[in-house]
Amino acid sequence: MKKIPATVITGFLGAGKTTLIRHLIEHAGGRRLALIINEFGDVGVDGALVQGCGDEACPDEDIIELANGCICCTVADDFLPTMQKLLDRRTPPDHIIIETSGLALPKPLVKAFQWPDIRTRSTVDGVIALIDADALAAGRFAHDEAALAAARAADPTLDHDSPIEELFEDQLACADLVLLNKTDLVAADRLAALEQGLAGEIRPGVRILRTARGEIDPAILLGLDAGAEDRIDDRPSHHDGEEEHDHDDFESFIVDLGELAGPEPLLAALARSIAAHDILRVKGFLAIEGRPARLVLQAVGPRIQHHYDRHWQAGEPRRSRLVVIGQSGMDRAAIEAALGARMAAA
Ligand SMILES: Nc1nc2c(ncn2[C@@H]2O[C@H](COP(=O)(O)OP(=O)(O)OP(=O)(O)O)[C@@H](O)[C@H]2O)c(=O)[nH]1
C-alpha cells in the first residue's frame, strides 16, 4: 500500500505559512489535499482565511483546525487521532499538509509519524521551513545580548538562550527545504548575506529558495520524499532529551472590539502598542460599520496589513476580534485599554 505523503510547514509567527498554503491549494494540479492547521491562539484565524477559498483541491471538510495550543505538545491528544481519521477515510487525500503554529517545534511532530498506526500508512514527505526575510534582516531572531544578560541576572535558573532564537534554530535544523520568504521586502544583496547566515543553521544538502508571497511551484515543495520520520536523529533540537517542553515564554489573548466606526483609530493604536510592548503577532477580523465585508488585519512585528476579504455571512456575528501573541509578561491590561477592548463585564 502506498503511504500518503505529508508535508510539514514550519516557520516563526507570521513568516507566511498560511499564504504559502493558499498558493499551494490554488495550484494543486488536481491533487486532493487535506490541511491540518495548528494555531497558538484560541481563535482559528488561519483556518478561516483558507476556508471558503472555494477551491476544489481542498473542500472545507478537508481543512482541520487544531487550535488547542501548539501541535508539538498535543501530539497524542489531537494530532494522532486527527491523522487516524484522515487515513481511515474511504477516499483518503492524496497529500496531507500540516501547518504548525509559529511557536511549534517541528521535531515532535515528525516523531509522531513513528507511531505504528501512522507509520504504516503515511510518511513525512518533507519539512519546509519558512523564514521571514524582513524579520531576519531586522535582527528579530537574533538574541539581544543585553536583554539575555538582564533576564539571566533576574532569574539565575534561566537555562536557555533567547526563546525566539531557539525556536528559529529548531525549525531550521529540522527542515528538508528552506524558503526565504518576503523577498519583496529586502534588497537582493542583503538576501545573499542572509542566505549565507542561514547556511550555518541547516543540515548539509538542504536548499534555500527565495519566495515572495509563497509563490512557488508546488512540484518543488511536494514530493521531496524525505521519509523524515526514519532519520529523525539527523535533526538536532535544543529540546532533545526533554520529556516535555512548554511554551511559557509566549502567551496570547483575544481582544474583543465589537463593530468599529472605521479602522484608522484602531490601526494607529495598534502601531503604538506594538512599538511599546513585547507583541510579536496580531491577527483577526474587524467589522466596520456600513461595510458588508470583513476586514482582515495582520501584524507581524511592526508591519501592519489589512484588506477586505469576503462578505460577512448570514448569521455570522459582526464583531471585531484580534488575537495578540507576544512574549510572556506583556502588559495585557495596557494593551487592551489602548486598543479599546470591550471588557467581559461591559
Ligand atoms: N510583503 C510580503 N508579505 C507577506 C509575504 N508572505 C506573507 N505576507 C504577509 O505576512 C502576513 C502573515 O502571513 P501569514 O501567511 O498569515 O503568516 P503565518 O506564518 O501563517 O502566520 P502565523 O500562522 O500567525 O504564524 C500577512 O499579512 C501576509 O499577507 C511576502 O512574501 N511578502
TrEMBL record:
SUPFAM superfamilies: Hypothetical protein YjiA, C-terminal domain, P-loop containing nucleoside triphosphate hydrolases. Signal peptide: none annotated. GO terms for biological process: cobalamin biosynthetic process. InterPro entries: CobW (IPR012824), CobW-likC_sf (IPR036627), CobW-like_C (IPR011629), CobW/HypB/UreG_nucleotide-bd (IPR003495), P-loop_NTPase (IPR027417), Zinc-reg_GTPase_activator (IPR051316). It comes from the Bacteria. Residues 250-343 form the CobW C-terminal domain. Keywords: Chaperone, Hydrolase, Nucleotide-binding. Pfam families: cobW (PF02492), CobW_C (PF07683). It catalyses: GTP + H2O = GDP + phosphate + H(+). GO terms for cellular component: cytoplasm. Belongs to the SIMIBI class G3E GTPase family. ZNG1 subfamily. Zinc chaperone that directly transfers zinc cofactor to target proteins, thereby activating them. Zinc is transferred from the CXCC motif in the GTPase domain to the zinc binding site in target proteins in a process requiring GTP hydrolysis. This is Cobalamin biosynthesis protein CobW. The gene is cobW.
